[in-house]
Design goal:
Elements (H helix, E strand, L loop, with lengths): L12 H8 L6 H17 L4 E6 L3 E3 L7 E3 L5 H12 L3 E7 L19 E5 L5 E7 L7 H13 L3 E6 L2 H15 L6 E5 L6 E2 L22 E2 L4 H8 L4 E8 L2 H15 L3 E6 L6 E5 L4 E5 L2 H5 L4 H20 L1
Parallel strand pairs: 1-4, 1-8, 4-7, 8-11, 11-12
Antiparallel strand pairs: 2-3, 5-6, 9-10, 12-13, 13-14
Bound molecules: ligand 9Z3.
The site of ligand 9Z3 has 15 residues, from helix 3 and strand 11.
GO molecular function, one term: phosphopantothenate--cysteine ligase activity
EC number: 6.3.2.51
InterPro entries: CoaB-like_sf, DNA/pantothenate-metab_flavo_C
C-alpha cells in the first residue's frame, strides 16, 4: 500500500466513492440548485421527490470508445415524474442524458418533421409559417397545458448524468441537498445502476485493440450508495429502491434482502419482461401486488399511476409517524 492512500479493502462505500470515482466539475453548483429547490418548495407546502431514471454508462477505456450500459429506457422514471407532479410533489429528475423525459416521452416515437406542415401562402404559394398537425400528436394541447403549468410553477428540476461516476456523485449531492427537509423528501431510485466498474487506475487509456485477441475484462463491485444515503446523507427521508430481475423465482427474496440490508422504507420489485403490467411494492411488513388488466393496458392506464398512488399514501403515513 502506498503511504497516504487508503486501502480499498477497508474503505466504506462513501470512502470508495471519493477515492475511486472522479467528481464531476459541476456537482457543487447542481447541489446548490437542488438545495434551493427543496427549501423553496417545502416553504410553499410541497413535498419533494428525487427520481433517478435511465441506465448508467461504465467506460472501458479512459478515452472512451466502448462502455457497459444498463438497460433502462427511462419510461418508468419519466411517467412517474408526471404522476408525482399531479399529486402535488416538486420533482428533481436525475436522469440519463437522452433517456425518456416527462411529457415529451409521449411523443418520443414521432418524427417531429412529420407532425409539422408549411402553411399555404397567398395564391397557393408555400409560406414559411409552420403549423402543427394535431392528429400526428395525440392530446398535444392537453399535454402542452400540463407541461407549461409545471414549467411556470418551477416544479420540475432536471439534472442529467451519463456515466456511473456522475450518477453516484450527483445522487450523494441530491441526498445531502434534500436532507434539510427531512421526512418531506422522497427518494424514488428507479435508475438502472451498474453493479460493476473498472477503476480509473486499471483502465487502458486508449481504445482496446482487437488485434490483441479476445477481450477479458475484470470489473470491481460498485459501492452500494443506499447504505450511506439511508444512514448518513438523508437519514429522515422516505426511501424507495427498485429491484430488477429476469428470473421471477428470486425476485421477492432479493427485494426483502435489500430491505433487511439497507433498512429503507420500500422496494418496488419487477421482472424485466412484465414490468409494464406487474410490480410488487415490498415494505418490512407489507407486500402489495400492483397489476394492470389487459383492458386497462388497452386504455393506456399506466402502472406508474398505481405505484405513485401507493407510495404517496405510504409517504403521508410515514410523515405522520415521524411527528
Ligand atoms: C427498475 O427496476 C426499473 O423499474 C426499470 C424500468 C429499469 C426496469 P424503464 O426505464 O425500466 O421503464 O425501461 N430499476 C432498478 C434497476 C436496478 O438496477 N436495481 C438494482 C438491482 O436490481 C438495485 S438499486 O440490483
Amino acid at each position: 500500500m502506498i503511504l497516504g492512500m487508503a486501502d480499498p479493502r477497508t474503505l466504506t462505500a462513501e470512502g470508495k466513492l471519493s477515492e475511486e470515482f472522479a467528481v464531476p466539475s459541476h456537482v457543487e453548483e447542481v447541489k446548490g440548485q437542488m438545495a434551493a429547490f427543496a427549501v423553496q418548495h417545502r416553504a410553499a407546502g410541497h413535498r419533494v421527490v428525487l427520481i433517478t431514471s435511465g441506465g448508467t454508462k461504465v467506460p472501458l477505456e479512459s478515452r472512451t470508445v466502448r462502455f457497459l450500459d444498463n438497460f433502462s429506457s427511462g419510461r418508468r422514471g419519466a411517467s412517474s415524474a408526471e404522476y408525482f407532479l399531479e399529486s402535488g410533489y416538486a420533482v428533481i429528475f436525475l436522469h440519463r442524458h437522452r433517456s425518456l423525459y416527462p411529457f415529451t416521452r409521449l411523443y418520443s416515437g414521432i418524427n417531429l418533421l412529420d407532425s409539422l406542415q408549411l402553411e399555404s401562402g397567398k395564391g397557393g404559394s408555400v409560406s414559411d409559417q409552420v403549423v402543427v398537425n394535431q392528429q400526428a400528436l395525440p392530446n398535444i394541447a392537453k399535454i402542452l397545458m400540463r407541461y407549461q403549468a409545471v414549467k411556470k410553477a418551477g416544479l420540475l428540476l432536471p439534472v442529467e448524468f451519463s456515466t456511473l461516476s456522475e450518477y453516484l456523485h450527483l445522487l450523494k449531492a441530491a441526498a445531502q441537498a434534500l436532507s434539510p427537509i427531512g421526512s418531506n423528501a422522497m427518494f424514488y431510485l428507479a435508475a438502472a445502476v451498474s453493479d460493476f466498474y473498472i477503476p480509473a487506475s486499471d483502465m487502458p487509456e486508449h481504445k482496446i485493440q482487437s488485434s490483441n485477441g479476445p477481450l477479458q475484462i475484470s470489473m470491481k463491485m460498485v459501492p452500494k450508495m443506499l447504505s450511506p444515503l439511508v444512514k448518513d446523507w438523508a437519514p429522515q427521508a422516505f426511501v424507495i429502491s427498485f429491484k430488477l430481475e429476469t428470473d421471477p423465482s428470486i425476485l421477492l427474496d432479493r427485494a426483502r434482502r435489500a430491505l433487511a440490508t439497507y433498512r429503507h422504507q420500500a422496494v418496488v420489485a419487477n421482472v424485466l419482461d412484465t414490468r409494464r403490467g406487474y410490480v410488487v411494492v415490498v415494505t418490512p411488513d407489507t407486500q402489495a401486488e400492483l397489476v394492470l388488466t389487459d383492458e386497462e393496458a388497452s386504455r393506456d392506464v399506466e402502472i406508474e399511476d398505481r405505484i405513485v398512488s401507493n407510495l404517496t399514501a405510504a409517504h403521508s403515513q410515514f410523515i405522520t409517524q415521524q411527528g
